[in-house]
Amino acid sequence: MDHDAVAQAHHLLRRGDVGAAIRHLVPALDASASRPQSLRLLARLALHQQDTALASRTLQAALAASPDDAELHALRAAAAKIAGDPDALEGAARRAVALDPGEPLATALLTEALRERLQVGEAIEVASACLARRPDDWGTRLARADALQFAGEAEAAERDARHAAGTGGSLQAVQMACSTLLYLDEPAPDTPAGAARPDAATVLARHRELAAAIPPLRLPPPPRGGDAPGTRPLRVALLSPDLRRHPVGQFVEPLLAAWDRERIRPFCYSDGVPDAASARLRARCNDWRDIRGEHDMRVIQRLREDRIDVLVDLAGHTHGSRPQVLASRCVPRQFGYLGYLFDTGFETCDGIIGDAFNLPPATRSARRPLRLPGSFLCYSPSADAPAVAARAARGERVFGSFNHLAKLSTRTIALWTRTVLAVPGARLVLCALGLADPATRERIQARFAEAGLPGGRLELRPPVTSSLPAFLAQYADVDIALDPLPFNGGTTTLQALWQGVPVLTLPGQRMAARSGLSILAAAGLSDWVAETEDDFVNRACHLADDGQARIAWRRGLRDRLRDAGSCDAGRFADRFARLLEDAVGA
């Protein structure tokens, strides 16, 4: 009887009627005899429909009959994830993995949960144990790729993501296969490109190949009529899961604050969990759309109802984006900006917004580059940023970087090690979220030791999350900040400059490898832009030796940023509006 009920449910599913399949299986909850197959399928379907009440009731009944069933505990972990209960998720997933060390769903969920709790070393171990048994489990491989990238192991992360995209084919796997490419080292000028060090042209070709695997949605014909853009303000939708306490939210705020509403009418399509920063952004935007949990087709319907002229995607292939919305051409113009510093590969994208520094002539980072005058970023310094702290002209010199560990590429570690060793007695200070995890600290320490940096000259600090002022106050200990490659800092570079700390950068080919150049050149600080690795080390030594110059910079960098217009929201918003108006009119 149990087998027959499941067979009938599968017949209904093949017809696409999930609701009917659920209704057919629900009697198993009250059946006198145990129906384990029916209950397992019912639990899966309830989770698919995000009916947590039905899923919980079903799993409770199923576990009462089979308390040591690993798959049921894995489904309980999935239910906890939907319910937003991380403690229950971890407990259920650990129980499932204890019963079956290769249980794929539980392992993937546990790996994700551990990574989110910054237990990155254990996350990698858990995933690796499962993959030793099930090497083609793409969900676990994708979760491990995320953890490896978080730990700065770009090449291993890219291999896992590529494997996951090839075996699983999910949208998430395809997107991670794209994004991990941006963290791979670029080939040195005198070496050919390869799989571990692809050039920009190879990365672009791979993006186009992967994006072509994301199917567009079947859309009804667009509505006709309505007033033309030239007769009213341009309707611009900003689409992102990061309109919150996040660099994307920070850099969007100047636009929302300063756009002339006679020219631009902004709509914020927010796809993330709101916070205090979201509330501040929302106060600057009359047309705020909370689209969390909405189906892509509903999002497209809302874009059309709002008669959007331009969709500015702020996420690209990062977590929480809407790839099928982007692939479907639901508005007249679509542009990428800010949250993904490369061409997404979608044929429906009409351009990538940057500047002349990060999208130079003949760039391979974007097929259709759109260039803002000056830098592509406008900085809004925090009102409660601490005062610039004084540093002695003589004594120990300290290099520092507070960038995400994902940016610690092999070439970055080698270059920074050379730089620190070139200055007698100098130290390197790193502060990042991942350094809260002892296993991750050991991995980073080992990578620098392998490059030749003694442990006594490297300080690894856990994250400072109590407040932004407390985080920024750490620049009181740093003389010179080092920009990672090939994925430069953005927020961290501007924060360092605001706290009076010079930043050294070495531009690369790809857009993400030229953010430092964009920020420094636009502020008239090109002396800190190196041309080669040798030049990078030489400029670092010169800055380290010139204590009086460093003191002068600490006193004057804030004025330099203001005078250069790096914090001028009005000018930036005007330039951005003009760029969009020209692009739509073209």
UniProtKB/TrEMBL annotation:
Q: State the organism of origin.
A: Marilutibacter spongiae
For this UniProt entry, the molecular function terms from Gene Ontology, in alphabetical order, are:
glycosyltransferase activity
Q: Which SUPFAM superfamilies match?
A: TPR-like (SSF48452), UDP-Glycosyltransferase/glycogen phosphorylase (SSF53756)
Supply the InterPro entries for this chain.
Answer: Glycosyltr_41/O-GlcNAc_trsf, OGT/SEC/SPY_C, TPR-like_helical_dom_sf
> What keywords does the record list, in alphabetical order?
Glycosyltransferase, Repeat, TPR repeat, Transferase
Q: What is the designated name of this protein? A: Tetratricopeptide repeat protein
Q: Where is the O-GlcNAc transferase C-terminal domain?
A: 233-360, 398-553
Task: Quote the Gene3D superfamilies the UniProt record gives.
Answer: 3.40.50.11380, Glycogen Phosphorylase B, Tetratricopeptide repeat domain
Q: In which pathway does it act?
A: Protein modification; protein glycosylation
- Any Pfam family: TPR_19
